[in-house]
Design a protein that fits this description.
With 246 residues, this protein is α/β, with parallel strands linked by helices. It has a single domain, classed as Rossmann fold (3-Layer(aba) Sandwich), CATH 3.40.50. It has seven helices and seven strands. The chain has helices spanning 16-27, 39-51, 66-80, 103-131, 152-171, 198-211, 216-226, and strands spanning 7-10, 31-36, 55-60, 85-88, 134-139, 177-184, 236-239. It has a seven-stranded parallel β-sheet, sandwiched between helices. β4, α4 and β5 (134-139) form a beta-alpha-beta unit. α3 runs parallel beside α4 (103-131) and α4 (103-131) runs parallel beside α5 (152-171).
Length: 246
């Protein structure tokens, strides 16, 4: 398999997209180094993957702390001698109308969704430049392509991920580094659980109940991008549930 023995770092790996991707890549023979804040869930997943014959390592990580993201990546390199792929997946979606002035939610989204991605890039670039190879996969959203009332700040953070990814793509050409941004629609994860406004949370939950597809849909998109020959760089993937109009 093309992804066997690749050393892959995944943030936000304790649930949702990150967990599904860790499971699929591990089953394909990748070595996964998993970061998340929820240590018990992270360790339980790691133990399960190792017992199934995989190679997995858990590193407690808050992506809003640069030193913790660097520690996650450094641990991968110290343990396995290199890093082949990072998936900057950790994200929050506490959406609400701007007029509700949920400033703390805005700050959290900026810290996790934008700075967390930047910190992942900062942690891997020195290694990948030296290796003259690597693959950086950033997670945007359909909201990174469309803005609607109520998701303005979230959409802004996910637009930012697309801009960062495109700028990164252009800058890393001399180092043979590949870049991919993946923009999912409604995928079944715990993301709606980060909504703090009860009425908004109800609406989001109803939307996800009606439309969301399983998280392994995202994992397969990751595998597709990773599985290409070295000279092929899949820069952007946008996907939705077939029934999702937005």
């Amino acid at each position: 398999m093309p992804n066997s023995n690749k050393v892959v770092v995944i943030t936000g790996a304790s649930s949702g997209l990150g967990e599904a991707t860790a499971r699929l890549l591990s089953a394909q023979g990748s070595i996964v180094v998993l970061g998340a804040r929820r240590v018990e869930r992270l360790q339980a997943l790691t133990e399960e993957l190792n017992q199934s014959g995989g190679k997995a390592l858990a590193v407690p990580t808050d992506v809003t702390e640069l030193n913790q993201v660097k520690q996650l990546v450094d641990t991968a390199v110290q343990t396995h001698g290199r890093i082949d792929v990072i998936i900057n997946n950790a994200g929050l979606m506490p959406v609400s109308l701007l007029e509700r002035l949920k400033v703390d939610d805005w700050n959290r989204m900026i810290d996790v969704n934008i700075k967390g991605v930047l910190y992942g890039i900062a942690a891997v670039l020195p290694y990948m430049k030296e290796q003259k190879r690597g693959h950086i996969i950033n997670v945007s959203s359909v909201a990174g392509h469309k803005v609607r009332p109520g998701n303005v700040v979230y959409a802004a953070t996910k637009h930012a991920v697309r801009v960062l990814s495109e700028g990164l793509r252009q800058e890393v050409k001399p180092y043979n580094i590949r870049t991919t941004v993946i923009s999912p629609g409604a995928v079944s994860t715990e993301l709606p659980g980060s909504v703090t406004e009860p009425d908004v949370a109800d609406n989001i939950r109803n939307f996800y109940d009606a439309y969301a597809i399983p998280a392994d849909s995202f994992a397969r998109a990751v595998v597709f991008a990773m599985s290409q020959p070295d000279e092929v760089d899949i820069n952007e993937i946008l996907f939705r549930p077939t029934a999702q109009e937005l």
